[in-house]
Amino acid sequence: MRLDGDGLIDRTRRLAFTFDGRKHLGFEGDTLASALIGAGVKVVARSFKYHRPRGIFTAGSEEPNALVTLGRGPGQEPNARATTVELQEGLAAYGQNAWPSVEFDLMAVNDLLSPFLGAGFYYKTFMWPKAFWEKLYEPVIRQAAGLGALSREASTERWERAFAHCDVLVIGAGPAGLMAAWTAAEAGADVILAEEDTRLGGRLNAEVEEVDGQAGSAWAEAMQARLRTMENVRVMTRTAVVGAYDQGTFGALERLEPGRALKGCFWRIVAKRAVLAAGAIERPVAFSNNDRPGVIMAGALRAYINRWRVCPGNRVAVFANSDAGHQTVRDLLAAGVHVSALIDARADAACDLDVPFYAGGQVCDSGGRKALESVSFLHRDRIETVQADVLAMSGGWNPSVHLSCHMGARPVWDEGLAAFVPREGAVPGMRYAGAAMGMFSTRECLESGAAAGKAVVDDLGLNGAEVPVPKAEDGVYQIKPLWHVPGKGRAWLDFQNDVTVKDVTLAAQENFTSVEHMKRYTTQGMAPDQGKNSNVAALAVLADATGRGIAETGTTTFRPPYVPVPIAAMGAGAQGKGFSPERFTTSHDASIGRGAPMIEAGLWYRPSYFPKAGETHWRQSCDREVRMVRDHVGICDVSTLGKIDVQGPDAAAFLDFLYTNMMSALKVGRVRYGLMLREDGHVMDDGTCARLGERHFLVTTTTAAAGQVMRHMEFAHQVLRPDLDVRFASVTEQWAQFAVAGPMSRALLEDVLKQDLANGDWPFMACGDVRTKGVTARLFRISFSGELAYEIAVPARHGAALFDQLVAKAEAMEGGPYGMEALNVMRIEKGFITHAEIHGRTTAFDIGMQGMMSDRKDFIGKAMAARPGLMDEDRAQFVALKPVGTVKELIAGAHLFAPGAEVVSENDEGYITSVAFSPMLGHVIGLGFLERGRARIGEHVRMVEHLKGSATLCEVVAPGGFDPEGGRMRG
Amino acid sequence: MRLPCPICGERDRREFYYAGHAVALERPQEGAGAEAWDYYVHNRDNPCGETRDLWFHESGCGAWIVVTRDTASHAVLGAVLAEEAAR
Amino acid sequence: MADLKPRMPLESLLPMEASGVRVREVDLGALTLVMPYRERDAALSDALEAAQGLRWPEPGRMTGTTGRGILWFGRAQAMLIGMAPEGGLEDHAAVADQSDGWAVVEIEGDRAAEALARLTPVDLRPGVFEIRHTARTELGHMAASLTRTGKATYLVMVFRAFAHTLVHELGIALQGVAARGGR
Fold it and tell me: Which residues form the signal peptide (chain A) (predicted)?
């Protein structure tokens, strides 16, 4: 029901919304929870396990009960806490975990079965037969349990991620946080003030009290206005700091106000110092049927009355173990709500309020069905019952220590407060203020906030005038610890996961006495609310059951995030094209224009093949391109290969150290194939090395390993050989490079370059500068196809134009562009390796290149490559295979066995790494590794592939069956 | 996590590539025995407490750095350029 | 046969504008990466000053302007912008032409830093990242060079091949800024 007065809502702005299809009205400034209370809705959810009817229990992000689903379709958001959802016009919320509805839920049969569903139920019940788990138990349990569901449609909601930096991060903008932020800001620090709520003030917005001679909420608003004018302060409302990480990094979830094109932002905030002023969370008392709709936390009730002007009933009983009860009664009376009893657990408590007062009383049961009707309590050894449709309870306050524990520290038990407080120095650079450190009066909060602000600016070496601490109410927090009132029925601890006192005591009886074991056995605190309002009471019950103190029992581990963070927020921007960057070559548009399907090579995109009219299968295009290159000429963009420019007096010595072979012996104007090893003796990468000048080399890497090789070279120089005077840089992007391959390649390039390229000046493996159309280009006579071939490189701005012209010329010679498929077929025909072969476990010996390991110098990997096991003749060695039986299929990844040998791993003799159909040889070729392979040329082996169920008899042949002498390449 | 690059100052961990213990600085001389190489390439301590490891400021300035940090508290105690540590 | 018509990396992809933030491609002219040899830093700086009137920049700084300047570009390297590598630089340093290797944009507007904060972990607070400060960092998973060239103007360089992704990422960032409305 809605009370008179404005509170902090705007009565002039009505908002229509629906809950489970029924229309209601609320006001601007309402949360969904306050609007539902205002509309008289009592049951808003069903509990996780027993499907008990549940009502709104708190007024903050700790809410265990009121989880709802917002919207339907792609934007559907499950498990939203009604207490933190801002009301907006047209909001459609739905109850969840119930069928057909939260009001009438058939699954509530679980509640009748509760004697069988206690702690460890799943572990004890669904154990056998084993086969039933996957097929029967799990699907049924998954259907019955759980909270809200996603729509299973791709989300249309947009989130983003961003970074922020500051000197001081203040977490929480209650009186303590406001003072800390103000103090730090006045001293000149860059401050971020992060507040979960839509407005600053914290409890000041929920209580009737004065600060600086005005209403607390008005003071907070004035502070907000003041802070917003300061250039060095960034006020972030709707922003929950969710995690504290190393070196002052914090995660924070910001939700934008409804109606924006963006849902919110996941922030990574880097702060030199932090002030934790996150307040405290009121804790319930466990008694029989304490989960009945109508039972609500006392502090939350005050917030609903004072801030939102709503009350969930009109006859309220109040139960507390501190002065919180009196405070609640005062606010209720001021709002004109009938109070049927004030039950104070403290026997010595006094009361001057005009309500039935029961000192030393303890509530032990609630009556009613889907809504509270009466409250029973133990008073002077008698059980008394009063009529009430609301019970406000308070078991004291737990400081929100969570963020102080994210780096592994445990909080400290404070006997006087009967609560855990944060440990000093738990997070480097973090200080505490206000209720988060157990300062519960407003005056203490303001003072400790100012003190924390002062302390952090002192830490930062900033000087500023101290800010005046405004006048505020002071009070002494007197509490009689009370966790559990004994009784017959079930008494709830964790409302969200349906954990009762009995479950915890059962865990203790069954010897799960460690708090971490109890947690996992009962699921206490493992729901989305992470036990914010129940963990401390649960471990107090465990402490009781095991005869230990609470301090000794300890807490479970607090982990991020403090509030649930949607995966959509953490992964924002990473969908679609944001998943990973795309690298396009200068010929990209031309390839697309020719209809080439693109294939990823690392981050690069390269054309697979260039389909022609009438070709319906990639193999047709590929075979044609292979024949085109072998008979005429083909053009292929090879810009993606890494190019590293190496210069300096010691450049040659450095390359000798990197490569297995001698690059220092390379003549200027010549190119050499080279092999780099890792220090463990295995092959890291291969490529070419061109000597452009006496002190100037150009190293190429494979496309996939370019980054790795660059890192490796920097390591080799900076870490291993800083004595060498050499400098290098990636020039991959500077040059667009194209292979011109095939018997007509010389004629084509002679036409383009208008110069003679005969073998005399331009033999195989020559390199040098050439000019075309006024542009200086680099020409390399190298071949990955086995044909007479060149690679020509021009500054990238000319790449697109050169590609077009080369292709046009090639087409005039019955040639054209070719893609990765044809390139791959040709290198397999030639027995050239790629990273399919040098996959990280092969040595130079394995690929038959042991002769390239120079013994005249040291090089990376030399010592380890010489280990006996890496040069063993029994190792799997690089070979080629061709099918000889009726089955003609070879499959990369398949394993090799001697014909007739049983197909078991002990008989495994090798595997296939690359496969292609050779249009030139007319059969499939496989490359792979076979034990003692080089000595087994001509023998037969059997390829076996289990996934497809293939088996193929093959002959072992030498790699490079096409033009084995290499005459075409040198021609 | 943030690391103090001696050239760029404190930077986010995502800019760095991790490469293990700084024992990698002490490459054995050519001809050192198998044991020395085995230790250099394969054997690493797993200390609880202070350790030195190599990071590459890959999407930053390109410096290899030696970072001293505490594996238990996660405190980063300092960093120097690897080329200086190696000399 | 036609000339080899040059093409800029971001041709036809830019400009774009949102929330008062403008993104346009910049042609910096000649880009030359200069990497001084061991213990030649001072000699190189002198040679540069003699030939170009500009000193070698400190780490994280730029000397001159983006029209003609020297941009620190990483450990022991800097990029000469808009000038020929004259004055015998090769005696003191390795020199590599990078004029075609980079996609370069200028981002300008009061909320430019706000947009960039969605992409880079670098601290861009005006008092920390001042005019002529430069950083090598990540910009949405791309290695980048980021320089503050004016009060609310930034120069961003990524590999040429990343041009499309750069525009995509900046576009998303600007949408994020716009979605928040005015400040």
Answer: none
